[in-house]
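Table S2 (continued). Query chain:
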Amino acid sequence: MKFLKKFAAALLLVCALALFAACADPGAEQPTPKTVDYTVNIVCEDAGIPDGLQVQMVAADGTVAATGTFTQNTAHFSLPAAIYTVRVTPLPDFEDILDGYVCSTETVTAAVTTATVTVSPEGEETIVYTVTVLMPDGTPAQGIKVQLCGGPSDVCVLSDEATDAQGKVSMSLAPGTYDVHVVETFWPEGCSFDNENPLFRVTEEAREVTVSFLTAN
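Corresponding output:
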């Protein structure tokens, strides 16, 4: 009887060690992160400029996740789902190609996978547009990034900064009319946003607007 008890205890110990080794196996298959296809377009008055540029996808920690070039004013990337800052710089043999020009800085996310970078002459007129974002109860919504869509180039531009403690965020863009959108990535839990509301708009004459989240059904 004692022998059987010792044998059973030894068998349980062996099974436990085998299970631990299997769980700790560094070669065990790990979940594959979701991959997203991102597209970067470039809009420039001088058609020759994009040929001398490269585009970098910069992760939140500042590392460059990928680098590519434009083909017919478009670059494509397949990367793990995340928020990336799109940075456009000259290629090594074209260091002076952006002299007198500035490139807009755009952002892509798992929900907003396409960005359009604009190359504009330095000193071009811009207007500061201000959006105030509120929660359904009327309190300021902090930490929200907004998109302004429209303007002379008919593009959507994501704000570099998020809304502050007063729910405000400002963007400097070319004069025009822009609709205010909030991508779902930035919706607070339990909230939704009406991206088709015609009142959520800024213009050259009305440069500030207040928008509000809705309570999700």
